[in-house]
Fold each of these.
Amino acid sequence: MNRVAIVTGAASGIGLACAERLAADGMKVVLADVNEKAGAGHAKRLGGTFVAADLTSRDGCLKLAEASLKAHGTVHVLVNNAGFQHVSPIEDFPEDQWERMLSLMLTAPFLLTRYCWPAMKRQKWGRVVNIASIHALVASPFKVGYICAKHGLIGLTRTAALEGGEHGITVNAVCPAYVRTPLVDSQIADQAKANRMSPDEVIEKIMLAPAAVKRLIEPREVADFVAYLCGDAAGVITGAALTMDLGWTAR
């Protein structure tokens, strides 16, 4: 398989697991992150390329797309994964954090999809996978910026899917519950502070309370699902918000 994949937020967590799995499947992977040391090291290990880009800016998104197209001539797969979390009540939620969250987790996926779209149309084949969250479908307190960005990402997913279908492009969102990543580790600490709980109580009483399966998801499990969506076998799946939610939404 001589396909090219861009993965954002690829220096750790879900993004790194996706880059590793897609590389193992034979794709040429472009890893993007602001963590240059870790990202470059992983790219070298995987035989891919690394682009240091701040995706909260239009220039950063354009830099990533142009570097990928210059290096490989096209893009087949785009995995929009980069993100971060901030936990606080609405009345205390910093305005700059709101703007950064929407820029990184909603505007950047739109821009990167837009920049990669012509190449995907020309080759009549493309896969866009947006790493959303169960919080793209349901809400929790103290996470207004994250939840609004992820809800918007579902709208982007559905609209792009409708436009891409006739061109062989599928667009889907993966909506996992809590995944064992550095981002979730920081959320545990933030939630503990906001709710005046211990970290163990946060995991038990907040993160896993709605779940039927009482454990955190592993990054490689998300990556396996993403890899399926990026293959030919998933050509009839598009416009979907696909849950990996441990049974959260079964209630």
Amino acid sequence: MSLRLEPGESVGLIGPNGAGKTTLLKLVAGITRPSEGQVSSRGRVASLINLGAGFHPELTGRENILLNGVILGLTRREVKQRFEQIVEFADLGAYIDTPLKRYSSGMYARLGFAVAAHVDPDVLLVDEVLSVGDVAFQDRSIRKMLSFRDSGRAILFVSHNLSAVEMMCQRAIWLDHGQIRQTGPTAEVVRAYLDAVDDSLVADATENGIVASDRDPIGVTDVEVSDANAQPRVEFEYGEPLRVRLRCLARHAVEQVQCSVTVRGDYGPLFTATSERFPRWHVGAHEIECIFETLPLLPGLYRLDVQVRHAGSAAWALPRTMAAFRVATDLAAFGSDSVVGVTKSRGGFLAVAYDWRVQSSAGEQTLAGLRLPTTSRSGR
């Protein structure tokens, strides 16, 4: 593996757990020594890998700011000059003189990030900072890192939040078991990674996800995706109907049966159809169909999560990914020069028509936006 990070460049590392992302950051930070090869850096390096590393739980927040700032390379005078900014950023004013052992994990993380972010580094190493702290802290964190990027510092950014990677980084590296699968412009690498994840999930669902445990009174034995004419398909156009047929086997008589089908994007559910409750299902085969009248989706691969609940279902039971389909319409052809979204994570998921209007002393000007294709309902 070879990686070069230039001044002013922001590079994102993406990949599954165990791919080697954190290990690479630890090598660059000097926390871990390489077993072979070389790692060299110039300038001050600040690492946000283990937030709060170097803190002492018996010391107060104030004392730990002074201690940790010096550990990270500042002089005592520099720490004192930045002390108020650090406290304000961490939002711990009322607790700054409380020992850290009484801090919550979120407070601990806020103080750790605040100190590291005010070291004024030449290279910033960030590992999953957005996974800790509350929403307000996460917002301050991302804004601070964006200010680093825009001021010409180098950033090596690790996160499973791919939207944050696309927003933060000009270039991305997809790692898999310590090997580089792909490197290049962030949007292209993220798109390739998401496609691979989707394909893997769909394959797993097809091979392992259909038949439920014998202990479950209801098993979903087959999920079929089809068009308006009930013809099985996995590729659709924008605005077409989508039919989802579930074939189920009731091993025992069950009551209060309720089915749900959820269309998922890259990061979570987009919309769900939930049936009313069927009072009773007798032992044997059952078939239920859900029809979505139109697909208001941008091009891409989408997953279907399916759940069949009944009176005896556990409260924590979760839907299972059992099928997938692709929307293939090139919506960019229906706009002028507008960008629909290079990847779903940046362009969103739902296709909504829009125009732009500009009002000035020269009058009003209308800029063409996105025009959606007309949909045909023939065959329904």
